[in-house]
Design brief:
The chain is α/β, with parallel strands linked by helices. The chain is built from 6 helices and 15 strands. The strands form 3 sheets. The chain has a 6-stranded mixed β-sheet with strand order 3-6-9-12-14-15. Strands 1-4-7-10-13 form a 5-stranded parallel β-sheet. Helix 3 packs antiparallel against helix 4.
């Protein structure tokens, strides 16, 4: 728990204390409830798992399917409107901003054929997903990749890529922990305009 809270403080300049994160951060609450829901999902108590995940959604505005596989130190910043689908896999130290979706391509088409298959994204370690980004289908986003605000990703993303646009295109490479990446798409140069 301490490592999780420290990881949020490192990634959010607004985080003042561990207690404030526990009490006021919806992303932290959503991850906590997901761990409980995931326990019940693995134990095949699917209805209980879904009730817990829906309660968490009611409290936080963040929807994480109980069967999603989440690594350590996931930070969902602001959180409102984030959706993480059933077969999503999220590595360690991933940051996801509000209104992002890790979804399927067309879940309402041939639903029976989509059961029990991988249909949601895999995010490797240290990925940053900007606000409003949509990562759709069973794609893999490589380590240290950055997905810009409102980008739509439907193809695999290489390690260290910076993806922007609709459809998303790789516009740069990061060195892994690129401090210059702006998840909201705003730079100091655009402030001058």
């Amino acid at each position: 728990m301490n490592e999780f809270l420290e990881s949020i403080i490192k990634r959010d300049p607004a985080a003042k204390s561990k207690l404030s994160i526990i009490l006021t951060y919806p992303g932290a609450k959503a991850v906590f409830f997901h761990k409980i829901a995931n326990f019940f999902a693995i134990a095949k108590f699917h209805l209980v798992a879904r009730i817990i995940s829906q309660f968490s959604r009611f409290l936080t505005g963040i929807e994480i399917h109980p069967r999603a596989n989440i690594g350590k130190n996931l930070f969902i910043d602001h959180g409102m409107g984030v959706v993480i689908g059933e077969t999503s896999e999220i590595g360690d130290n991933v940051t996801i901003y509000h209104m992002a979706t890790l979804g399927g391509i067309s879940p309402s088409v041939n639903s029976n054929e989509q059961r029990n298959i991988k249909r949601h994204p895999t995010l490797k370690d240290n990925v940053v997903v900007g606000s409003g980004a949509q990562i759709l289908g069973p794609v893999t986003v490589g380590k240290n990749a950055k997905i810009g605000a409102n980008a739509v990703v439907t193809k695999d993303v290489p390690e260290n890529a910076v993806m922007v646009g609709i459809p998303a295109k790789n516009v740069a490479e990061t060195s892994g922990s690129d401090e210059n990446f702006k998840p909201y798409g705003i730079t100091s140069e655009s402030d001058k305009s």
